[in-house]
Structures are given as C-alpha cells and as structure tokens.
Write a structure and sequence with these properties.
The structure is a homotetramer of 208-residue chains.
Chain A: H1 5-21, E1 31-35, E2 40-44, E3 58-62, H2 77-86, E4 92-96, H3 99-107, E5 114-117, E6 134-137, E7 139-140, H4 146-159, E8 166-169, E9 173-178, H5 181-204
Parallel strand pairs in A: 7-8
Antiparallel strand pairs in A: 1-2, 1-4, 2-3, 4-9, 5-6, 8-9
Chain lengths: 208, 208, 208, 208
C-alpha cells in the first residue's frame, strides 16, 4: 500500500499531538514512522519534540533503515525498518517512552517478558478475541548498538509463531505497530492502560 | 421519553469527547447508548475510537440488543439493552474501561462486590442522601458469551431490592446508567473518583 | 469590598472550568462562592457540574447561609457563610472533592489534622514565609447535619490563634478561602500538590 | 547571545502555559528566566501564576540577581543568576515544584543526590549518549537565606567535573537549564518522567 509523503507527514504530526496530550511524548522522546511504499519509510527526525512536529520534522529511510534525506532520521530507524521487513501488514510504527513501560520492564526479572492475562482490553490488540487469553509482549534488553539490537529483535520475532502487536525495550519504552497510524496508536493506548494496571497491581502488593 | 436520533448522536459524540479528555476512552474501548423510544436504542458502532466519534459511528438496536442497522453495534449491545429492559428510568448507558475499575475488580476476592462506604461523593449517585451509607456496585465475572452474561446480569439485578447505579465486569470495566447522558456520565465520574480512592487506600495499606 | 453579581458569576464560571481541567470538579461535586457585600454571597446552585457552569448556575445567600433566590444554593451554603462570618478578609470560598483530600483524611487516625511540614510550597499559603514551619489544616468529621457541622467548624476555627487557609472534611474534601477567587484557587492547588506528596510518602511506606 | 526582551517574554509566557498544562505550574509556584545579554536576565515576577503569565509578569535582574526594574523578581532570582554566572552556555533556567521532585528528595537519606541509571530517557540530557550511564542530579537542602543558598550551590557546582543539567532543592523542586527555553524545558520533562519512574519503583519495592 502506498501512502503519499504528504499524507504520512500529516498523520505523523497528528498522532504526535494526540500522544503528547496524553503525556506520551515528553522531552523529544519517541519516534514514529509510516511505510510509504515497498522501498521508503517516512520517519520522524531525530531530536524534535514529538508533540510539536512540523512538516520539516519528517524524513525518509529505506527498508534497511538508511537515510534517504539530508535530515537525520531517528536514531532508532533500524528498529522501525526491521518491523516493516518482518511484517508485511505493518504500515505504521510508533515508539514511546512512558512511566509504565519503563518502570514495568525494569521491575521484571532478567529475561522475563510482559505477560498480560485476563484483561478485556486485550481485545483491542489484533487477533485477540477474548479476555481469557495470555498475550506476551516480548522484552529486549536495551542497547546503543542499534544494528545489533535490530538483529536481535528480528531474530527473536521471526522465530515466534504469531506476530506480537508490540515489543518492549527494558528501561526504554514500547514499539507498537499496525496497519494504519490509528491502529498502531490503539496498541500504544491499550498497552499503556494494561501496563498501568500491572504496575498498580504490583504497588498494592499482589504478584502472580 | 423520546429522543431524536440526531440529538442522541450529538450527545453521544459529546460525552465521548469529555470521557476521552479524562483518559476514560482509550484505544476504542467503551461503548455508549441512549434510549430513543420504547423500541429503539442508539448505540456506538463497534471498534471506533470513542473520543473521536462522528455521525456515522452510531447505530441502532432494539430492546433485545439486535442490530436494526447495517453498521455493527457494539459487541456489548446485549448488556445495554438489558439495562433498558430492567430499568424504565434508564435513558442512557455508558461503559468505560479504566485503570481503577479494571485493577480494583481484579484485586477483589472471587465473588466480592465493590463496597463504597462513608464517602460524601456517594451522594452524587441517585437516591443517596448521606455519606454514612454503604453502596454496593455488583461485580460480575467477565465473559465473551454476551447473551449468557446478559442473562446472568439481568437475573442478579432483577433480584436486588434497589437498583444500583452501575455494575462492574471483573478485569473489564464499569457500566453506568442514568436518566440522561449527563446523569450517567456523573455516575461514571463519581465511581472513577471513588474507585481511585479505594485503590489508593489499598496501595497504602497493604504490605508484604 | 463589593463585587457585582455579574463579575462574581464570571469568576465562578472561570474557576470551575480551571478546576475541572485539573480533575478537581468531577460529577457535580464541589461548590464555590464569592462575597458580594456585607449581606450577600453568590454561590453555585446545587447539583450543577462545576466544570460547565452557566450564568443560571449561581444563586445568592445571606451571611447566615439562607437562600435569597428561588434557585437552591449548594447544600453546603452554611459552611461558606460561616467562613465569611469568621474571616473578614475572606472574599471567596472554594470547595472541592479530590482523591488526595478524601483519601488522606480517611487514612488519618481519628481526631488527627493534616500537618504539613518542611515543604517550600507552603509559602503559597497566606502568611507563610518559610518552608521550615508546620501548617495545620484542621480536619472535621463529615456530617449531613449542616447547621450542626457549621457550628462545630465555627467554634473550633474561632478558638484558633491564627486563621488556617483551609479546612478538611474527612472523606469529603477541602474548603479553601482567600481575598479573591484566584487566591482561594491558589490554596486549593497548593494543598492538592502537598496532600498528594503526603499520600505518595505514605504509599512508599515512610511515616513520621 | 542576545535575545530581545520581547522575544524572551513571549517564550517565557509560552513555556509557562505548556508546563501548566502538564500540572507543573500549580499555585504560582515556579519561576523562569532567560539570559538577555551579558548583563541582563529576564525573569518572572514574584507571585504570579506561571500558567497564565502576561507581558507585565516578566522583569529584569542583573547577573548578581539584583532587580533592574520596579517589579519584584522571583524570590529565587539569586539562584537563576548563579546558574548564568556558572555556565556560559545556559541561556534559560526553569524552576518547577512537582510531586515527583518534592517527594523523591524528601525520601532520600540526608546528603544523598538523585542518581539515575540505565534509563534510555537519560539521553535527552545534554552530553548523555547512552542509557548505560549514571547521571547525578545534585540535591541541596532548602533554605530561605537565598544569598547563602546561592553561594552553597555555586561552590558545589563549580567543584564538579562536569556540569549537571539541573539541581534539586529538597522538598522544594527542580532547577533545570539549557541553551534555549526549549532545551531547559526538555530537561524538566525528562527529569519529571525519570523521577516519577524512581518513585514508582520505590512504591513497588518498599514495604514495612
């Protein structure tokens, strides 16, 4: 599916405003991308405040995450490109830092994923038709070696039977994807709600 | 009481915006309905983001919860219809997922209801004239078998001496009703405040 | 000092919007008043949503809390009137229900007041010039017998050496006052911040 | 670098609105400044609500923190001036009171600083290029003796090898700086996120 650069920019600016209104785009954190066609991805420029994006704040990369433009793409472009290579249906990827995703992943034991069970809100996620299920959001250790991280992520995701709707980087944040920007945003919102519920449960002192 | 479809849609769109502004409409969760007349109910279409509803996002069902329109009603239409059959005075039903309603019901022992005592804010709820009282919000186990759930809910509510202002589905959220959209919204807001107080108390009081 | 009814209404509507934007006016809770002159007080009508007040949502009472208008004043009019009788400098009184004020007062031992020490933010409160001080916000048990409650409040406040900036009703909320609506609003905001800090400290497990 | 007074005022008003929208400017707390040139600093007037600043709410001080205008500068002008004297690259200083900064510093043992390790969001801070690092935000005991506090702060900061992006006053709040108002705001937002994560971790981890 092709999306014009102009439409992509408009959607990216808009989702940045909405995420910022929910406190999910603090301090230039986060990055958003949209697949333009088989070869090109529109992605936010590095270092801009995502709640106040303008038309100059979106650049282009190829499917290997390499810049096609003078403006520097997000440092995490390789992860975005990896998602598009892995999942033909992914047309948008949203990455956010949030208190819930950062704190929950830091509190997990090493090697553990975020496991969400029994929540009706899980049905927002693609392919989930009941609350009576177990959704695993894979957690990866964070790294500054982005190519290596992208390879680790790709290897593990490729080996999974079913595509998760998102992944987490420990102490960093969440990457969510979908067939449109709104679908990816829906995953971000749902996981934010669910991870906050998980944290609330930990705060009260009950653990599985 | 009759409400025109046009007025109903306007009110539904507006309450969706207000609830979304409070973080109570994340990620397409929730559903809202308004009784049009003895036979018809206007209800939100399934899968739309409730904070950004448009005129095409409202459809109609009958008092048995069956679609009267091509657009698919909320999957939970049967519950809405059940409330209107049970309570002649109910003219609006609002369902929301929230951290407080989801987490509190998951933390309760099996079979327990949410019991709110001693709060002045209880006086927002219909029929409550003092803080020095005990208001029980019945909690039901969640289920994907909507007709069965609707029957269970109806049976239990019919057997209660007095109509509660709302009900909770464990790990899912709250259903609130009232004589107008604003009255139902008031119940949603009041319960959100009260359930958050309950959770805050649990957070402070429980220790390993 | 005289304030015209028209100005009073304008200020009351505006402060309601601002408090509601902060989540401090849920579900018709709260009530606000402004002293018009030696004999008359403008106060919000009972049962209106304070975040969406209109010109018809303000009525008048006298210094004994009695209605001077057909529209029913807030049920808590007697408390507002009591503050104006006690404190010549009070020109505005704001009452809000909030998670912090409700939960903190419910967690205190019986008979205990809210004691705030060591916070720089205390300097927002009238007469406080250092963080290195102890500010006591008196807490009263809630009651539906408003005349009796007003008498209890008045007796205790009259006996205090210095006027507190506010009072709390246990499990109910806060009453704050000031020389203008903005000053009273400042007290509401400051106490909300400080009581939230107190609750946060309780949650972490440290107590004085 | 020179900034006209008019531009400075515009930026100060705007950042106040944004911080207030995030709940970071309650009740006249906080103060903001911008370096105009080698000799003059524009700073918010004392006692104004920072979310609703107007053109009359900004005054000027010199590099020693002395008023150059009839309008009284923030009581903390000396701290702002100290930052500009210490750091040639600082062109804006933002001070806010927040639940996170107040509560976290009160919970620390005496003499302890806030230490942030392992968070990707640390990379928002100037000079930080990896999450795998340890950023120390120095904490000072609060004081009403502003000249003395400014001297203590200056002495300690001058002795540090590298400039921190901010400092904390215990039970008071955070001071953040940057090359522009937006850079300083970025530090405020990032630290707010990170300190909230720290508090969340404490809430989950500490029990009596």
């Amino acid at each position: 599916m092709s999306l014009t650069l102009s439409s992509a920019i408009t959607e990216i600016i808009a989702v940045g405003r909405r995420l910022d209104a929910r406190g999910l785009a603090p301090a230039t954190t986060g990055n958003y991308s949209v697949r333009l066609n088989d070869e090109r991805i529109a992605v936010t420029v590095s270092g801009r405040h995502k709640g106040r994006l303008g038309h100059d704040d979106v650049t282009q990369i190829d499917l290997d995450g390499h810049a096609l433009d003078a403006k520097p793409p997000s440092a995490e472009a390789a992860l975005h490109a990896g998602v598009y290579r892995l999942y033909a249906r992914a047309e948008a990827v949203l990455h956010v830092h949030s208190v819930a995703s950062i704190t929950l992943t830091r509190l997990l034991p090493p090697g553990a994923d975020v496991v969400l069970e029994g929540y009706e809100t899980l049905k927002v996620l693609p392919g989930v038709t009941t609350h009576d299920t177990r959704v695993v959001i894979p957690v990866f250790d964070n790294s500054q070696d982005m190519p290596a991280l992208a390879r680790t992520v790709e290897a593990r995701l490729r080996a999974l039977e079913a595509a998760p709707p998102a992944l987490l980087l420990r102490g960093h944040g969440v990457y969510a994807w979908g067939g449109t920007v709104e679908e990816a945003e829906r995953v971000v919102e749902a996981l934010e709600l669910l991870m906050t519920c998980e944290l609330e449960t930990l705060r009260v002192g009950r653990r599985n």
